[in-house]
Structures are given as C-alpha cells and as structure tokens.
Specification:
Blueprint: H1 2-23, E1 27-29, E2 36-42, E3 49-54, E4 65-70, E5 78-79, E6 89-94, E7 101-105, E8 116-119, E9 127-128, E10 142-145, E11 152-156, E12 160-164, E13 172-173, E14 183-188, E15 194-198, E16 209-213, E17 216-219, E18 229-235, E19 240-245, E20 255-259, E21 265-266, E22 275-280, E23 286-290, E24 294-299, E25 302-305, E26 315-320, E27 326-330, E28 333-337
Antiparallel strand pairs: 1-28, 2-3, 3-4, 4-5, 6-7, 7-8, 8-9, 10-11, 11-12, 12-13, 14-15, 15-16, 16-17, 18-19, 19-20, 20-21, 22-23, 23-24, 24-25, 26-27, 27-28
Length: 338
C-alpha cells in the first residue's frame, strides 16, 4: 500500500512539473513570415485576432505592410489585405457586433496623409474612405468601435478625439472638455464609459485621463504624475482600469490602477522600463510589455519577469486571446503563453 502511495506521489509530481513547464515558458508558433510584426489585437467578443506587419519583403517592394487574421488563437492565419495596395497599416479596430473593421495607414509616400479604410466582411475586401481630415497630421494613434458597433472613435495628435457614424466616410471632432489634445489611447472602462489618455508634450496641461460624459469629457487624473501615458486597459471582472506611463528621458515607467472609476493609485514596486502595453491574466493580474525587457507579471504583490524561452526581449506587440492565453510578437516570431 505504501509502495502504491509512493508511486501515485511520483506520478503526481511528474504531472505537476510538466504542467508548470507548459505554463511558464513561451512557445513558438507558426505565424505569418516575411515582415516585421507591428501590432496585435483580439476582438474579445468574436475571438478573431488581427496581426499587422510592415516593411514586408514579399509584398510592396519592401515598403508596404500586410494584415492577417486568426480565428483560432494563432493556430492558423489568413491574409486579409486585399485592396490595401501594400500600404503600411498603422492602426486597426474591429466591431464587437458584426464583421466591420476600420484601419488607418501610415503616411503615404506621395502625400502627408493617413488613409482610412473600411471592411464590412472581416477584411475580405477593403474600401478607401474620405481621408482628407487626416491630411497634414499624424495618423490616428488609436481607433475603437463603440459597444453597439455603429460609431467609430479615433484618437489624433493635436486634435483629441474624433468620431464617425458612417464607417469612416466623415469624421467629427468631439474634444469638448479635453485640455490636452495629444490623445494616445482609447478604452472602454467603468460603467461602459469611453476613456482617453494623453501625452505629456503639452507642458501646461500635462498627461491626463479623461472620461466621456455625454457630449463632453471630464478630467479624471487624480493621483497621476505628469508623464506620458501609453496605454489604458480595463479588466471588467474586477472593475479595474490599469494604465502605464513612459518617461523616455529617465527610461522608466509606472503602473497605476483605478477601481470602480475612483482615483488612481500606483501599483507599487514595478521595476521595469517604459510601459508599452498592458493586459491581465484571467484573474486580473497585470501583465506589462516593457521596452526591451519582455513581459512583467504582478502576482501577490511581487513583480517578476515571464520571459523564459523568448528569443528576444525586444517585443513588438501582445494580445490576450481568451482562456488565459497570451500571444506575443518579437521581430523574429510569434509566441504563445498560457
């Protein structure tokens, strides 16, 4: 009986060791090849992931970009850039209610213009929209569909936030109440309200967070420093919004959180560099993609790196694809972590 118990214990240890190995190492996946991975996002409702590459050596004579989608968490990929003319994709947003996609390109080679494209069929075909409003300024730094899918929001440097109710054909500025117009991200947060964050280029008004209330924006920056905010991320199960800062002069970043729409408090002890992107595990632990440091995780009050098996700490994007799985890109591959 003692022998059988020892056998069981031995098998139990082996199984748990194998599970630990599987869960604590990044695993290489067979993603699209031929370009530099630039952006990665996942539609939380449909589960479709979208991968943006640029400077692809196989398309556009090395000067363009490509767009791919995966319906199964990165197992297989479909190219969906028919009609984009090999341009470098700068930003993409997906509707949560239908197959609509909207994207902006980087400046074209012939004019200082970011071009807007719309797809009603998950990227099978793209239609160029009236993009004159994006001439002579930076591309849309963030794009987002509203929760009912009939309005698209775009953050734009020196303008603030714009919206379109006709799939990008026309855009209206909706920046009333914004004291800093250098928007860097858009995110839906507490009570389903739209939030935006800003850069610190405007020395007078600094980096801020605003929430949209009706036709205007309200400053909700209590507790935050005057440092560029790169990313907002909302974990709905815990009603917690996280943000990450990036002080390029000092080379450091900070993590802050707001619970139930309250004041911001710092998540203490973050030892990493500038924050590029934030996500969470399924139970709400922050995951941070940091400049040249791979990924940090916060668990039980302790920050640790989760970089085992990565071929490079210079990451380019990451996204949560559900069931606790994170996909991460470097310049040399796509990696999966459970």
């Amino acid at each position: 009986m003692k022998y059988l118990s020892n056998q069981f214990l031995y098998i139990f240890i082996i199984i748990n060791c194998n599970l630990s190995i599987a869960q604590n190492f990044w695993q290489a996946t067979n993603g699209p090849q031929g370009g530099v991975y630039r952006d990665f996002s996942t539609n939380k409702i449909t589960g479709n992931s979208y991968l943006v590459t640029h400077w692809n050596t196989n398309h556009g004579n090395g000067l363009g970009g490509n767009l791919f989608t995966s319906p199964n968490g990165g197992i297989s990929w479909i190219e969906i850039d028919n009609g984009l003319l090999g341009q470098a994709v700068y930003n993409i947003a997906s509707s949560t209610t239908n197959n609509d996609l909207i994207l902006s390109t980087a400046f074209s080679s012939t004019a200082a213009q970011s071009i807007i494209y719309h797809s009603p069929n998950n990227g099978s075909l793209w239609v160029q929209k009236n993009s004159s409003v994006f001439t002579g300024s930076a591309p849309a730094v963030a794009m987002l569909f509203n929760l009912t899918g009939d309005t698209i929001f775009a953050g734009k440097k020196n303008v603030g936030v714009m919206c379109s109710i006709n799939s990008g054909s026309t855009w209206s500025v909706i920046s009333t109440g914004l004291t800093n117009l250098n928007s860097t991200d858009l995110e839906y947060g507490y009570q389903g309200k739209l939030y935006t964050c800003t850069d610190s280029i405007n020395a007078t008004n600094g980096a801020k967070v605003f929430v949209k209330n009706g036709l205007s924006w309200t400053n909700v920056s209590t507790g935050l420093p005057n440092t560029r905010i790169n990313d907002l991320y909302y974990h709905s199960a815990t009603s917690t919004m996280y943000l990450g800062t990036a002080n390029s002069l000092a080379g450091v970043g900070r993590i802050y959180k707001s619970v139930n729409g309250g004041a911001w408090t710092q998540v203490s002890g973050y030892p990493g560099t500038q924050v590029l992107k934030i996500s969470t595990t399924t139970n709400g632990d922050p995951l941070v993609r940091a400049l040249d440091q791979g990924v940090w995780r916060y668990l039980s009050g302790i920050w640790t790196t989760v970089n085992s098996n990565l071929n490079s700490l210079k990451t380019t994007a990451f996204t949560s694809v559900g069931s606790g799985t994170i996909l991460l890109t470097t310049n040399a591959g796509i990696w999966k972590f459970n």
